Amino acid sequence: MIRHIALFKISSDNKEAVIKSFDEEFYKFLSVGFTDHKGYEFGVDLGIREGNFDYGVTVVFDDEDGYKRYNTSDAHQELLRNVVVPNISDRASLQFRV
Q1: Looking at CB atoms within 10 Å, which of 19, 24, 48, 72 has the fewest?
Q2: pLDDT at 32
Q3: What is the span of the domain harbouring residue 83?
Q4: How much is the mean pLDDT over the chain?
Q5: 94 has which bridge partners?
Q6: Which CATH number do you get for residue 58?
Q7: pLDDT at 55
């Protein structure tokens, strides 16, 4: 199995509005977008440690091919293009075996 993690720094001064938008759009993505995954979680940083990213997403797939289909899917690319990229100043990601 493969776990994908993506972290985002929100660029807007109104982080609460962006976070609400991210939550809504990620829920929508799960219900009508890409569904080829074993688990999908997302949320805002708790603020426990200074300097963390603001928002994170983690997704589990059966294998690398599942991740690749997700990463290149039209629904995922649309989510990135229309929701994520316009609202972030930085992004980090990685994939590892679980």
Answers
A1: 48
A2: 72
A3: 2-97
A4: 92
A5: 5
A6: 3.30.70.100
A7: 97
